Amino acid sequence: MSRLDRSLITGLPPFQGMTPADLDRVLQQARSLRIAKDQTVFEQEGEAHSFFLLLDGHVRVVKTTPDGQQVIVRYISPGELMGIAHALGRTTYPASAVAAVDCVVLAWPGNLWPDLAGSFPSFATGTYKTVGARLQEAQARVVELATEQVEQRVAHALLRLVKQTGRKTEEGILIDFPISRQDIAEMTGTTLHTVSRLLTAWEERGLVKSGRQKVTVVEPHRLFALAEGRAEKG
Amino acid sequence: MSRLDRSLITGLPPFQGMTPADLDRVLQQARSLRIAKDQTVFEQEGEAHSFFLLLDGHVRVVKTTPDGQQVIVRYISPGELMGIAHALGRTTYPASAVAAVDCVVLAWPGNLWPDLAGSFPSFATGTYKTVGARLQEAQARVVELATEQVEQRVAHALLRLVKQTGRKTEEGILIDFPISRQDIAEMTGTTLHTVSRLLTAWEERGLVKSGRQKVTVVEPHRLFALAEGRAEKG
DNA sequence: GAGACACTTTGATCCAGCGCAAACCGCGGC
DNA sequence: GCCGCGGTTTGCGCTGGATCAAAGTGTCTC
């Protein structure tokens, strides 16, 4: 394992307000890992031996039901923590994390959490802010699933992805990792068939452009109107 | 405002491991409030001036969508914290809280949070455990809404209520506050009509007994089997 | 550059659950 | 003890999306 440079994590939300010396101390405890596409970072129900920071790539957090159905809880972007079960008093991961592309992550032993949180209050509060934000997000999705039609839910999901990982191109804003119809279906509680139909319909209207494992949002505003349930003319 | 006795909160999860003197100090900062049935404790979007502990009664946490649909996020039982937006770095309440029956709550000024959390680490960690549990719960509901049929969702919702607030009677386990078909519908993303039909069907099969604003679960095990999607014979 | 595999599109059918409408209580108030 | 209101039941028709089925199509391998 090579020495980790503090520039890797300087300025990231969880580490804000820490001195360079602090950062080095924290990094000394971490291992850096390379995760190949489709490999799992941690496994649902598995013992929470570590928590992680995504340095590069994109990770899909997935819950699998007893009967094998999958639901994508969220995507993790670079700079975000994941697998922080320990911080919440849990000893087991509530979901699996799968690399959507080749990734680089930092891993800390889980039992280090109390130590880190104690020594670096800003790290602790930063983490809890993240948790708070995710709680918000989860509850917003509950409301969405409980009240919206499929079309609106898919539109919302795309907009969330665009905001989180969108990359500007000449055609519009591209979701910056391979994402299939099936993935979108698992984010929104529908089927890949319905997602496919929606995307082709939207493409005909000029809202998006999409291809194999690829979606570009051409007209975010119109898509947003759709997500809000404001049907558009034509 | 009368002096508050520490026995009110002794032994509650958030205050575990605090000395009597600590408890008194914490209570000195709190006001106790009486909230009449159907009054709101705090309002969605409102500035988060306080956080609360429910001492007695039951509180419904409700999110309202822009177009007026309501979703019941959760019920709060005695001993639970609510309105802890401040602890999560938010300045505004993400939902409204409405008394399901006459309630008694303790209220602390929100800006006291950092102070309390700093002085009483066990209070802080206890709170974060609660938040963690709620995140879990919210994500479980996302999975439920995304993968289950209405019948299973309603069954799950009833079982959750039974576990949280069930009171044993001769007929079975009674949900211990007035709850309408509409309420159940708003917990599960369906309509009061469908809930009504389900309850009558279940009543015919001897799983539950229900009446005006009242549900008693007679056979939790069979209801659980139903919730898990294991259809029953007959 | 041929073949295979994984992803996507599209069609056809079906049904769970919604929306609407109307009747039906149980309970509190006067 | 009657009235009225808020909650509940029930019937019926309709439809958004699921399910089933099969035919395209982009991309990687050898």
> What's the mean pLDDT score of chain A?
94
**Number of contiguous helices of chain A:** 7
Count of distinct structural domains of chain A: 2
Q: Estimate the global geometry of chain A from the Cα principal axes.
A: globular
Secondary structure tally: strands of chain A: 12
Q: End-to-end distance of chain A, in Å?
A: 59 Å
Oligomer: homodimer
Main sheet strand line-up of chain A: 1-8-3-6
Question: What's the CATH class of the largest domain in chain A, please?
Answer: Mainly Beta
Name the CATH superfamily classification of the largest domain in chain A. Answer: Jelly Rolls
Helix share, percent of chain A: 25-40%
Beta strand % of chain A: 15-25%
Topology overview:
2 copies of one chain form a homodimer.
Chain A: H1 20-28, E1 31-35, E2 40-42, E3 50-56, E4 59-64, E5 70-76, E6 81-82, E7 96-99, E8 103-109, H2 113-119, H3 121-147, H4 150-165, E9 166-168, E10 173-175, H5 181-188, H6 192-204, E11 208-211, E12 214-217, H7 220-227
Antiparallel strand pairs in A: 1-8, 2-7, 3-6, 3-8, 4-5, 4-7, 9-10, 10-12, 11-12
Chain A binds a DNA duplex (30 and 30 nucleotides) through helix 6.
Protein model, in words:
Chains A, B: One of its GO terms (cellular component) is cytosol. The structure is a homodimer of 234-residue chains. Chain A has helices at residues 20-28, 113-119, 121-147, 150-165, 181-188, 192-204, 220-227, and strands at residues 31-35, 40-42, 50-56, 59-64, 70-76, 81-82, 96-99, 103-109, 166-168, 173-175, 208-211, 214-217. By secondary structure, chain A is of the alpha+beta class. Chain A has 2 domains: 6-145, Jelly Rolls; 149-227, Winged helix-like DNA-binding domain superfamily/Winged helix DNA-binding domain (Arc Repressor Mutant, subunit A). In chain A, a hairpin with a 2-residue loop joins strand 11 (208-211) and strand 12 (214-217). Chain A binds chain B through residues 63, 65-67, 69, 71, 73, 87-90, 94-95, 125, 128-129, 131-136, 138-139, 141-143, 145-147, 186, 188-189, 228-229, and chain B through 63, 65-67, 69, 71, 73, 87-90, 94-95, 125, 128-129, 131-136, 138-139, 141-143, 145-147, 186, 188-189, 228-229. Chain A binds a DNA duplex (30 and 30 nucleotides) through residues 149-151, 180-182, 190-194, 196-197, 199-200, 211-213.
